Amino acid sequence: MTDTVEVVPQTLLDTQKNDPSFPNIWQELVWRGLVHVSTDEAELEALLAGDPITYYCGFDPTAPSLHLGNLVQLLLLRRLQLAGHKPLGLVGGSTGLIGDPRPTAERTLNTKDTVAEWVGYLKAQVQRFLSFEGDNAARMVNNLDWTAPLSAIDFLRDVGKHFRVGTMLRKDAVASRLASDEGISYTEFSYQILQGMDYLELYRDYGCVLQTGGSDQWGNLTSGTELIRKVEGKVVHALGTPLITNADGTKFGKSEGNAIWLDPAMCSPYAFYQFWLNTADADVIDRLKVFTFLTRAEIEELETAVRERPFAREAQRRLAFEVTSVVHGVNATEKVIAASAALFGNGDLGVLDEGTLEAATAELTTAAVTPDQLGIVDLLVATGLSESKSAARRTVGEGGAYVNNIKVTDPEAVVDSELALHGRYFLVRRGKKSLATAVLMG
């Protein structure tokens, strides 16, 4: 886990723009498929088309990194900022101690020290996606600042009295848990009150009038709008984005069953790029709309490419480049592309730094070899690229054996240990696509 995350250079943020072909930001959000549920649509459209407003989205530190589901909200925050509005990025130092109710079971409560540490990680990640300069500069807030000083009695008297148990029970997250064998604790049942209080505090302190979040959070989002209406007599708004799913019905945002995290220590830029590159044709256009700042015209051109030249995978390559650049930076993305090319003989493996090389070969079969196992036949067998020494000799004789992208044509050849990448690694290839890694030991 990284202690800090480099802030996206201002030059990259400066390249991000909303699409001027839309009459207003609301219409663009609708076209991109980012509006699933909201308070009054007409009022929201007028509000966002008018003078700058303050809006927020909250991120709970229930893990040491944000993930792709959070990325939808981060990019929505940025789109609204580009439209002239003022973002508040909230990291839940208090709500993270509880966690919002999951559909089936109680969350494991993390220690206060762990949550405080994760608050720092998430704050750094959120800051990457927003500009903290100019008239509508972003600001970061932590709900522990107003929750920690509040006594239980004050919380119940000043906040809890405005919530009706019947209404709370009807919230989807609560209702599903009540119907489960696990039930729900009073701790998680109270989560919606805490989130409602957040909105009230931000309304009072910053004039915040819009909260965004996933549609699965709708019950928590409206707890704030209802609280402000009761306490302040004012109408504020909420916007819920759709939960993103793949066209084949599988869950979006996971690879091999693992979440795609935004922290490079938990999901390397190489693995991140490959995730997007592997997007299905049926999903790629929707992903471009949600996760990139490409214009409608650019996306429509890529849609034509998918229809007419699907084998070229132009849309997938553009998607992978754009999203990886936003999350990890252009330099890291270019390294990943260079690594992908070099693995299959279309680039220089020697220019890859060790971290990028390790990430690029992480999914390959790896074999440990000693200095006396550097014969090409031994390498092919040790890595499993050939079933036997005779099969390995045939591969070499047919011109299909490569070590670090250098063709080996002599079955008796011994690879020079000095050729090991970073003193340790040999990329062994059979034919065009069968790859493995040999790691020199001793």
Strand-pairing-aware structural class: alpha/beta
Overall morphology: elongated
Per CATH, the architecture of the largest domain is 3-Layer(aba) Sandwich
CA-CA gap between termini: 29 Å
Q: Roughly what is the average pLDDT, rounded to an integer?
A: 92
Low-confidence regions: 2-7
Strand content: 5-15%
Roughly how many Å is the radius of gyration? Answer: 26 Å
Strand order of the largest sheet: 1-6-5-2-3-4
> CATH topology of the largest domain, what is it called?
Rossmann fold
The share of residues in helices is: 40-55%
Number of strands: 13
How many structural domains can be distinguished in the coordinates? 3
What features would you describe in this structure?
The protein has 442 residues and is of the alpha/beta class. The protein has three domains: 10-241, HUPs (Rossmann fold, 3-Layer(aba) Sandwich); 254-360, Tyrosyl-Transfer RNA Synthetase (Orthogonal Bundle); 365-440, Structural Genomics Hypothetical 15.5 Kd Protein In mrcA-pckA Intergenic Region, Chain A (Roll). It is built from 20 helices and 13 strands. It has helices spanning 10-15, 25-31, 41-49, 68-82, 112-127, 144-147, 152-158, 165-170, 172-178, 186-189, 191-206, 218-232, 269-277, 281-291, 296-308, 314-328, 330-343, 354-360, 376-382, 389-397, and strands at 37-38, 54-59, 86-91, 139-142, 208-214, 237-241, 254-255, 258-259, 365-369, 401-403, 406-407, 425-430, 434-440. A six-stranded mixed sheet has the order 1-6-5-2-3-4, sandwiched between helices. Helix 13 (269-277) runs antiparallel to helix 16 and helix 19 (376-382) packs across helix 20.
